[in-house]
Amino acid sequence: MYHSVSACTIRHRLQQSGLSARRSLLGLPLTQNHRHLRHQWCDERRMWAAEWNEVVFTDELRICLQHHDGRIRV
């Protein structure tokens, strides 16, 4: 027998039981190469003015339109 249950219902039931998803507090440390690439990215955009008008800022919100983003929650 198959029953369709929405994701919202599952989240609600888990919360009622005192369970909720949390992101891990610790992240992977940046390698020297990661730091170099971040610095390079910033340098390439240092003189941007009009280009920033084409960027959509989401206040650190992550939006996935096609598939699960692969984040691990604990």
From TrEMBL:
Per its record, what are the GO molecular function terms? DNA binding
Name the InterPro entries for this protein.
RNaseH_sf (IPR036397), Transposase_Tc1-like (IPR002492)
Q: Name one GO biological process term.
A: DNA transposition
Q: Which domain of life is it from?
A: Eukaryota
User: Where do the Transposase Tc1-like domain residues begin and end?
Assistant: 3-45
Protein name according to UniProt: Transposable element Tcb1 transposase
